[in-house]
Amino acid sequence: MRRQPTTPSIPEDPAPAASANALFSSRGAPRSDWQTVRNLLPYVWHYKWRVIFALACLVMAKVSNLGVPVLMKRLIDTMDVGPGDARALLVVPVGLIVAYGVLRLSSTLFTELREILFAKVTQSAVREIALQVFRHLHGLSLRFHLDRQTGGMSRDIERGTRGIQQLISYSLYSILPTLVEMALVIGFLVLHYDIWFAGITAIALVGYIVFTIVVTEWRTHFRRRMNELDSRASQKAIDSLLNFETVKYFGNEEYEARRYDENLLKYRSAAVRSQNSLSFLNFGQQTIIATGLILILWRATVGVAAGRLTLGDLVLVNTLMIQLYIPLNFLGVIYREIKQATTDMDRMFVLLGTHQEIADAPDAPPLEVRGAAVRFRHVGFGYESDRVILDDVDFTIAAGTTTAVVGHSGSGKSTLARLLYRFYDVNSGGIEIDGQDVRGIRQDTLRRAIGIVPQDTVLFNDSIYYNVAYGRPEASREEVIAAARAAQIDTFIRELPQGYDTPVGERGLKLSGGEKQRVAIARTLLKNPPILVFDEATSALDSRTEQAIQTELMRLAQNRTTLLIAHRLSTVVHADQILVMDRGRVIERGTHADLMRLNGRYAEMWRIQARNAVEGETDDEEGVAHA
Questions:
Q1: How many Cα atoms occupy the beta-carbon half-sphere of 522 within 13 Å?
Q2: Is 369 strand, coil or helix?
Q3: What is each CA distance from 312 to 107, 144, 293, 322, 511, in whole angstroms?
Q4: How far, in Å, CA of 178 to CA of 58, rounded?
Q5: Fewer CB in a 10 Å sphere around the end CB: N or C, the chain?
Q6: What is the pTM assigned to this prediction?
Q7: In this structure, are residues 475 and 526 in contact, taking their beta carbons and an 8 Å threshold?
Q8: Rounded to whole angstroms, how far apart are CA atoms 615 and 425?
Q9: Which residues are 397's β-sheet partners?
């Protein structure tokens, strides 16, 4: 019994979506060609009537194609009259000539009908699988994406998707017509000629197929090596371009070019070996075909000389072999392409088979927000088993209040936000929202209830409007502009030549740090979540910009449950509760006044930052005086 599809249905002609685990081994082991084809069949069979009609057109096209040389033989034998024979004009077979043209036209007509019928099947299957890959990647954990290089992964997906399209097209669209052609030709030779014609043809076919398979299997590792080196070169190039400014800072353009060229040289060497092996394969295939054609023509010529065959038979046998030669040669190309396609798809299969570390329970209910109180209940967590990041962290953020978390770098502050979003699951304890453990509710509803303004705001390479509207894509234009106005960025946007349609560049690099932060605030305002997380949202800004952004953040946090992660203590004095963390543990808690009276770690940090701030202001004043 076939397992039911697990991916959500897709509008506009959904194909059955088998789950990633059903399609591919979770270990990412290479799959056989037949297994891959079998996994694709449910997507194709969803359009079974189109497939049936396409197969009928396929058979009709091949029957018509076989009838063409048969009619040509009849035509030649009918016209076997002597030169100058007056009866020639009386025996012109007009019907055979017309039938010859009709059969040629019919072959083309049925072939094109087959392509029309099958085009939607192929493209729909490719669309469904590509979408499944995309969804699966978004369903994988943050740990997975932090361990991957985006350039290489995008190249693997690109090649894998293209490989799927080629595999469907070739295996279910081209191989079958070729096999039908072979069966019809061999069957005709068996019925109408002696066994030698069919025997020679069959031996040539078997020899050709065996040679193609053996050599293609041998040269597959060349293609695999090419893919690895291609991905590696792409990774180096994209990583270097994403860090364009860093490369310029250190003047390392030539160093980056040399690193890239090292991979290109290795790729060139692998590509040359692959091409040489392909040339050997092509020559061997042509040798087998030429040998079979010579033997067939020799046998037919002997038959004509002995009077057993006519000239029409000689032409028919020759034409059949030529007709068979074309699809037979194409079969070799198809097999090579399928092997290359499955090689290209291996890495994407590993992605599709990757275990989804953070997954919803099958019957997980949606989050029910009843005030948005957040509780970290004796949480223990580590990214690695031998390294503890959080140790027995226990606190509550009452609904509508602000809790700030401070501490030195590496104390575990930002990890709290990642666990609240459920990018990772806690090792011990639990995190609750209004009494509901986040591990037992649907992730999409959890994340809809939380808004974040991060330290490093990364924007899409699109317009400012798109990036603000990303907080709630279905929002109206008026709502988007209202959110930008509330974040104090509307005036700046309207002064730009393209206004809200201004592109922000790769990762938002065309905007300043303060402008990107305001965009982040605007899209969070548009999302309008009951829970807010400010993860060092102003630490990378100058003092004046920080003060302006801080005011907007405080206004945004009003009447919302807020987790404020900060390094600068001046930004947390207004918090209802301040937690001081050190080495993954909460060592102090209370209001700003409480902690100053305690005269512990928080008070020490406050005095150090205050002294540094005074020294910084003195340095600024001296710089102005000397100027």
A1: 31
A2: coil
A3: 22, 68, 17, 15, 79
A4: 10
A5: N
A6: 0.63
A7: yes
A8: 43
A9: 374
Rounded Cα–Cα distance for residues 621 and 410 (Å): 34
Based on DSSP, count helices (H) and strands (E) in the chain, helices before strands: 20, 10
CATH 1.20.1560.10 domain position(s) in the chain = 27-353
Q: What is the pLDDT of residues 179-224, one digit of tens each?
A: 887 888 888 888 888 788 888 888 888 888 888 878 877 877 787 7
Please identify, in words, the CATH class of the domain defined by 27-353. mainly alpha
Handedness of CA 490, 493, 498, 502 (dihedral sign): negative
pLDDT tens readout for residues 267-312: 888 888 888 888 888 888 888 888 888 888 888 788 778 778 777 7
- For the chain, where do the domains classified as CATH 3.40.50.300 start and end? 367-449+529-627, 458-528
CATH of 458-528, one of 3.10.20.740, 2.40.160.40, 3.40.1110.10, 3.40.50.300: 3.40.50.300
| Rounded (to 5) percent helix, strand, coil in the chain | 65, 10, 25
Residue 387 pairs in a beta bridge with 384
Query: Which CATH number is 367-449+529-627's, of 3.40.50.300, 3.30.70.360, 3.40.50.2300, 1.10.1740.10?
Result: 3.40.50.300
What are the phi and psi torsion angles at 377 (to 5°)?
-105, 100
Residue 338: name the closest of 196, 542, 171 by CA.
171
431, 419 contact by CB (below 8 A) = yes
Residue 105 structure tokens: 């036209």
If we measure between CA atoms, which residue out of 399, 396, 449 comes closest to residue 441?
449
